[in-house]
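Example S7 (structure tokens).
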């Protein structure tokens, strides 16, 4: 039997209408309406960073290839800043976009980081990154964000990425953002450097990857067979899209090849990898006969419930899908009929997810529960038009229920 597609609810057979023998009007209760919840996007990414050209203070239209990026933002040539002291920097944004599409990415938005006047007048500041991220806020389908290779020129060491990481974490931690951040360390980090960096950040909505990756230098005028080190985030975001498309967002995006990688900035041995992984630093490693692989799938959260990237992204996907898919309940009468309809709609959606192997449990009741009744709402909630649905799911790892609550305002809202 083929697996149902995400968000396509199994349909119950229609009830037969009871018809009497005598002439008259006969009323049949069809039960609550079965409203399908469509699956939210998980693989669409958005990058922020400086580029050669392109619009400022706005997000691009959806890009489907590196060629699309070059048409709008230019090639991978180095970026020059016009204000003294004049300096140039590697165009890490362009290199990351190339890696994204080479590793399975299908859809990408870009928001160019510029000086406040909309040009490459000076190396970007933290405020410039905040402004570029704000331009992405209105996009409903973005699920993953990154600032590939972004550093603040006036700051040295691992602190050079701190303002950018702070901006990314503020962006993904906003209420109902439903986004996940992929973080880069600065280039040239030692193991102790990246440990210090990890100690300064904590979020359930982000992951850190290390080290940087050596690729063939695509810049015009580069010597034949020359290499350049690039940040891991472009590769990783593409791999997220690849795994989501081939398996589903519930699968860990690890043990995956880094397409286009020639080598890694440094070699990480087993003992070092074990130590970094324990801290929530996802290593990129090279194995004889297997190539260069992503060898970790942990978030930067200190909360053990949110240790794994796939668990957090799966829950973000469920929350986003259910939030969008229950908007029809807004302004409906807040009564038992509405609650039953919500339970049916959410239950069917989660049942489909369980059928495709996204949750633990041999039976649906072991995989999820949906409550929407007087046990989830107080009289004060009802008086103020609040509908509260409590949902629990058992993700593949860890195998315990993680409970979240979805609220919608109904017709009785005051």
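Recovered sequence:
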């Amino acid at each position: 039997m083929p697996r149902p597609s995400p968000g396509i609810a199994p349909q119950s057979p229609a009830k037969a209408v009871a018809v009497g023998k005598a002439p008259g009007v006969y009323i049949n209760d069809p039960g609550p309406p079965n409203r399908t919840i469509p699956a939210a996007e998980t693989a669409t990414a958005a990058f922020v960073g400086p580029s050669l050209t392109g619009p400022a203070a706005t997000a691009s239209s959806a890009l489907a290839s590196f060629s699309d990026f070059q048409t709008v933002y230019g090639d991978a040539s180095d970026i020059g800043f016009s204000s003294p002291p004049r300096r140039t920097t590697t165009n890490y944004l362009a290199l990351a976009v190339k890696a994204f599409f080479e590793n399975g990415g299908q859809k990408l938005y870009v928001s160019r980081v510029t000086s406040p006047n909309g040009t490459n007048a000076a190396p970007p500041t933290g405020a410039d990154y905040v402004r570029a991220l704000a331009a992405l806020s209105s996009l409903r389908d973005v699920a993953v964000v990154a600032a590939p290779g972004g550093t603040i020129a006036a700051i040295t060491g691992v602190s050079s990425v701190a303002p950018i990481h702070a901006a990314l974490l503020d962006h993904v931690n906003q209420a109902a953002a439903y986004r996940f951040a992929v973080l880069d360390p600065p280039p040239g980090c030692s193991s102790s450097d990246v440990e210090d960096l990890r100690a300064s950040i904590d979020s359930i909505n982000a992951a850190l990857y290390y080290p940087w990756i050596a690729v063939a230098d695509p810049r015009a005028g580069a010597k034949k067979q020359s290499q350049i080190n690039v940040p891991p985030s472009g590769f990783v975001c593409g791999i997220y899209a690849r795994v989501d498309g081939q398996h589903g967002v519930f699968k860990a995006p690890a043990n995956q090849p880094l397409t286009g990688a020639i080598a890694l900035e440094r070699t990480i041995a087993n003992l070092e990898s074990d130590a970094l992984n324990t801290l929530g630093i996802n290593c990129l490693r090279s194995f004889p006969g297997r190539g260069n692989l992503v060898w970790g799938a942990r978030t930067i959260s200190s909360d053990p419930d949110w240790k794994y990237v796939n668990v957090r992204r799966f829950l973000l996907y469920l929350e986003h899908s259910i939030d969008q898919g229950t908007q029809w309940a807004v302004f409906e009468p807040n009564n038992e009929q509405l609650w039953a309809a919500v339970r049916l709609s959410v239950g069917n959606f989660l049942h489909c997810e369980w059928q495709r192997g996204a949750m633990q449990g041999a039976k649906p009741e072991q995989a999820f529960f949906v409550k929407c009744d007087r046990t989830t709402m107080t009289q004060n909630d009802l008086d103020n038009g609040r509908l509260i649905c409590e949902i629990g799911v058992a993700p593949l790892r860890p195998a315990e229920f993680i409970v979240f609550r979805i609220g919608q305002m109904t017709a009785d809202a005051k």
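Notes on this example. The two ends are 48 Å apart (CA to CA).
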